[in-house]
Amino acid sequence: MSIRLVIADDQALVRGALAALLGLEPDIEVVAELGDGTGVAAAVVEHSADVAMLDVEMPGLDGISAAAAVRRAAPSCSVLMVTTFGRPGYLKRAMLAGASGFVVKDTPARQLAEAVRKVHQGLRVVDPALAAESLTAGDSPLTDREAEVLKAASDGGTVANIAKAAMLSEGTVRNYLSAAMAKTGGRTRAEAVRIAQDNGWLL
Amino acid sequence: MSIRLVIADDQALVRGALAALLGLEPDIEVVAELGDGTGVAAAVVEHSADVAMLDVEMPGLDGISAAAAVRRAAPSCSVLMVTTFGRPGYLKRAMLAGASGFVVKDTPARQLAEAVRKVHQGLRVVDPALAAESLTAGDSPLTDREAEVLKAASDGGTVANIAKAAMLSEGTVRNYLSAAMAKTGGRTRAEAVRIAQDNGWLL
DNA sequence: CACCGGTCATGACATTTGTCATCCCGCATT
DNA sequence: AATGCGGGATGACAAATGTCATGACCGGTG
């Protein structure tokens, strides 16, 4: 019996190519393709899928949240995360959300079908390079509010704007940004944002 | 006789899927796959390719420069740009560099092969939505140095660092950043960076 | 030639950031 | 009850940033 697969990726080209490629495998059947994360859990249930392949970066519901939703709605369905950027923080968060596998889009295409089969068998699949990086990188040092403020700062607004958006006093915002800069090692707010993003500490 | 195609994209997964997908077409033959832009022109010449499909964002040589290199080395080879982000500025720059087509990765997979055929016939293929956006967005208002300094600022360094990197005085850097902020409409340097990037004015 | 725009630079200035010390509160651990 | 930690806030101060006027040089263009 073939593996029933749901694919979610916001880039139609990638999604289509992936579906075509994996659909060629005799033991894999692509039962649904989604362009965002919102409908994934429902689609998994509707088609009684065995494996869900999710991109981390998606409009609507992000891949991590979507993974959690899938696990809640259909515990028998394994989740394989596929991502463009090898952000160490994503790996850990995806695992905590119940994902069984995590591969970057740099993976040779042939290994993909194999990864799908492995997670379906209940095995865990993790990109080795990324796993190593994840260990050295460690957890996010940021508290929830620090991450929140830093994320609010990520599109370049002023302290006043961030304060308004986060319902905080300007001084408090500066304190959080200062703390975030100290913890990330960045010298400016913008640098801190970049570092945190590269490590997958925001979202 | 089949169309000889060279594919360059930094994501192995995408590249492989694209190659597999297009290779299935009876009239298309994928003769080379590259992971960066540096070897594209050489590969085109070596395999006497008819069409080169290039990603804009690539390590090493970016897609725009690679397109120009291909046109120089092999004027008979058409270039089709494929990009993740629909940055209006990219479109214009790609066209100026000699590209015949420009599609985003949101394009339905089936239209891709058709796009390859069209550029091979000498036709131009442009994503309609992007073309419209490109018209309203207009050209980059930034001068070369302004863009250069803004780009140097894009990873969050201080004025002092940017000045050192660009071999300019700190005051000059501040002037350029100020001008860039005025032209982009951003209130802070970080916002100006974001706006310029979204419009494809950097690179 | 005179003019303009882009490049590079100074200096002065107002504003915004970043840093720090110091509070208060609530909550969990001990 | 005491301690520690995170959230939230204030105020003061130093450093960085953004703004503006001004001037010089150069290359193209009317």
Automatic annotation (TrEMBL), chains A, B:
Biological processes, Gene Ontology terms: phosphorelay signal transduction system; regulation of DNA-templated transcription
Modified residues (4-aspartylphosphate): D55
Keywords noted in UniProt: DNA-binding, Phosphoprotein
GO molecular function, a single term: DNA binding
Domain of life: Bacteria
Residue ranges of every copy of the HTH luxR-type domain listed in the record: 135-200
SMART domains recorded: HTH_LUXR (SM00421), REC (SM00448)
SUPFAM superfamilies, alphabetized: C-terminal effector domain of the bipartite response regulators, CheY-like
Entry's transmembrane regions: none
Alphabetized InterPro entries for the sequence: CheY-like_superfamily (IPR011006), Sig_transdc_resp-reg_C-effctor (IPR016032), Sig_transdc_resp-reg_receiver (IPR001789), Tscrpt_reg_LuxR_C (IPR000792), WalR-like (IPR039420)
Occurrences of domain Response regulatory (ranges): 4-120
CDD domains per the UniProt record, alphabetical: LuxR_C_like (cd06170)
Name by which UniProt lists this protein: Response regulator transcription factor
